[in-house]
Description:
Elements: H1 2-13, H2 16-20, E1 23-31, E2 36-39, H3 40-53, E3 58-68, E4 71-81, E5 95-106, E6 112-119, H4 121-129, E7 137-145, E8 148-158, E9 165-172, E10 191-201, E11 204-219, E12 222-241, E13 244-255, E14 274-284
Parallel strand pairs: 1-6
Antiparallel strand pairs: 1-2, 3-4, 4-5, 5-6, 7-8, 7-14, 8-9, 9-10, 10-11, 11-12, 12-13, 13-14
Amino acid sequence: MDADLEYINRWNEHDITYIAKMYHADMTVFIGPFGMTVDRNQATAMNEIYFAAFPDIQLEPIRRIDMTEGWVLTEYVTNATHQGDYMGVPASGYPTGIRAVWLAHYDADGLLTEMSFYYDNLTLINQMMTAPWPLDGIWVSTVPTPLGNLVMTTTYVAQDAAKTRYSGSLDEINAMPLLAEIYPGADPTPKWAGGQAEQVGRNKYEATYLGYSTKIVESEIGKTTEFAGLFTIKAYFELLDPDHLQGHGTGSYYLASQDADRDGFPDEGQAPVACVPWEWTGRRLTAMPGCTPISGQ
């Protein structure tokens, strides 16, 4: 298991010579999608071709199983940008992401003696030749809560030509006193500054949102709006198809006193008074059919 993890780490460093030092002189590798077996030198040459086509590729292990007697089964995902010719497909600049698996054997010295690996080559080729689904537009999200579903809208606008960074504006449709214990007396509908989403994989995004909880108070000059608190949401979401997404994340909630300089952000070094997990699904707003009036009504 240690040798397998070391191999993954070396592969993620993209050092051809460093990787080859883990190859046994008589190593063989069966490449499932191609239906062919290669030797040590051929495997090294193929790594070089792969790194040239996907120079930022990283392997992310999902599950690793010790099969005993030196055998290890590893499931992983790859995330990479197609930046060079691969299998006759010229560089597209499109992000790719696929699931894969290998069965590897390591000897007592930690050298790789045999490997068989498999991945969906047709999906990879399709991703190299087609752009990811765009995030631009209006999304209606449903957030399950103990009080029922919270419905929100988010409008995303690309900030760069490559459409890898987006700004987002948020609105809550139905008000719920979800944070009453943290912000007593606050308006159940928070005010959102907005969000920032960055592409981190094929149709995958990492986002940050900033919002405020406020309340109406009586003062000598009449009713005024004051801060009750502020919060940040760290989110991860993926487009499941062109018009549906699924996400999860955590909300960090701060008291108004934790923004002493009133710049609209938590002061440096402040820890949230609560950390709450969230999940949601979203649907893009697209054209919908209209109704047909009934004659005479």
